[in-house]
Amino acid sequence: MNLDEDYEEAKDFVRTMQFDRTTEGFKTPVFEMTIRALGGLLGAYELDNDPMLLKQAKQVADSLSYAFNTTTGLPATHVDVNGKIPLPTDEICIAEAGTLQLEFKKLSQLTGDDKYTKLVENVSEILERAEKRHEGLYYSFINIHTGEFYLNSSLSVGAYADSFYEYLLKQYILHDGKELKFKERYIKSVEAINSKLVRKSYFGFSFIDTL
């Protein structure tokens, strides 16, 4: 877009940022920082190839990694970056737990350090093992201490769940089609959504409902 001067100014600002510390008492949201800060830095690095951007992305991920220090390895929704601890919580929605994989795995690919992949791969497997009412549909909330779904939470592709389903397909693409399990899980989910959640309105319009 020929906004080179603006871009360089933004990069100068990013260079000064310290992602391993924040305002005392601030609750850093893991999901938001992953998709926006970590994802943004990784995208910029792939376009720019400036090592500073990758270094800053790594600092973001390292600061967020403390959220995974829970009984199961499911991440807390918020982390105390200064204290390097997850903030107490009992539950996390599947959109928050299942929408970290692309960014953390991409960071592993770019740095050669598989610790980031291991963190989020564990989350994916916990979500897969947990009891489900319908194969391919995942309850919206899961207990981070037990790794079991809250069976009274909704089955939906709306709020609290939407991006989880997106990331199944995107992980298959990220791995160049070599990780067939993500393709298989995505297809199962699409089939289950079609058979269990698609409804017809009074006027004959199709829509996706919630169970």
Automatic annotation (TrEMBL):
The keyword Metal-binding applies. GO terms for biological process: carbohydrate metabolic process; ERAD pathway. Its cofactor is Ca(2+). InterPro entries: 6hp_glycosidase-like_sf, Glyco_hydro_47, Glycosyl_Hydrolase_47, Seven-hairpin_glycosidases. The keyword Protein biosynthesis does not apply. Its EC number is 3.2.1.-. It catalyses: N(4)-(alpha-D-Man-(1->2)-alpha-D-Man-(1->2)-alpha-D-Man-(1->3)-[alpha-D-Man-(1->2)-alpha-D-Man-(1->3)-[alpha-D-Man-(1->2)-alpha-D-Man-(1->6)]-alpha-D-Man-(1->6)]-beta-D-Man-(1->4)-beta-D-GlcNAc-(1->4)-beta-D-GlcNAc)-L-asparaginyl-[protein] (N-glucan mannose isomer 9A1,2,3B1,2,3) + 4 H2O = N(4)-(alpha-D-Man-(1->3)-[alpha-D-Man-(1->3)-[alpha-D-Man-(1->6)]-alpha-D-Man-(1->6)]-beta-D-Man-(1->4)-beta-D-GlcNAc-(1->4)-beta-D-GlcNAc)-L-asparaginyl-[protein] (N-glucan mannose isomer 5A1,2) + 4 beta-D-mannose; N(4)-(alpha-D-Man-(1->2)-alpha-D-Man-(1->2)-alpha-D-Man-(1->3)-[alpha-D-Man-(1->3)-[alpha-D-Man-(1->2)-alpha-D-Man-(1->6)]-alpha-D-Man-(1->6)]-beta-D-Man-(1->4)-beta-D-GlcNAc-(1->4)-beta-D-GlcNAc)-L-asparaginyl-[protein] (N-glucan mannose isomer 8A1,2,3B1,3) + 3 H2O = N(4)-(alpha-D-Man-(1->3)-[alpha-D-Man-(1->3)-[alpha-D-Man-(1->6)]-alpha-D-Man-(1->6)]-beta-D-Man-(1->4)-beta-D-GlcNAc-(1->4)-beta-D-GlcNAc)-L-asparaginyl-[protein] (N-glucan mannose isomer 5A1,2) + 3 beta-D-mannose. Keywords: Calcium, Disulfide bond, Glycosidase, Hydrolase, Metal-binding. GO terms for molecular function: calcium ion binding; mannosyl-oligosaccharide 1,2-alpha-mannosidase activity. This is alpha-1,2-Mannosidase. Belongs to the glycosyl hydrolase 47 family. Pathway: Protein modification; protein glycosylation. It comes from the Eukaryota. It comes from Coemansia thaxteri. GO terms for cellular component: endoplasmic reticulum; membrane.
